[in-house]
Amino acid sequence: QPQLEESGGGLVQSGGSLRLSCVGSGFLLDYYAMGWFRQAPGKEREAIACMNNAGTTTNYADSVKGRFTISRDNVKRMVYLQMNSLNPEDTAVYFCAASSTPRCPGAWATWGRGTQVTVSS
Fold it and tell me: Is the pLDDT of residue 106 over 90?
């Protein structure tokens, strides 16, 4: 059964950086686009980054473009989200997801449980 698990969340001051990690198990990442999402309290889940299966194409939400970078290592079954210049509006639970297709935007079939990111002002 495919599973995803996020790690790397925490508390950081405004202007700081964090790197989130996501490890996949039960399936090969090679064939699927991978994405990161976030959900802040009282708000809908927001798609923030997507990378195709080969790692050659990325999409970002305008809210994170230029600050966040998605990357992947298919051999290690890992996906990363480097987050720089964080601000309090980035506070949310961050989720990793695997698509059922190789390209972005994905058809999101598998989700992790999320990791909390809190940015203090």
Answer: no
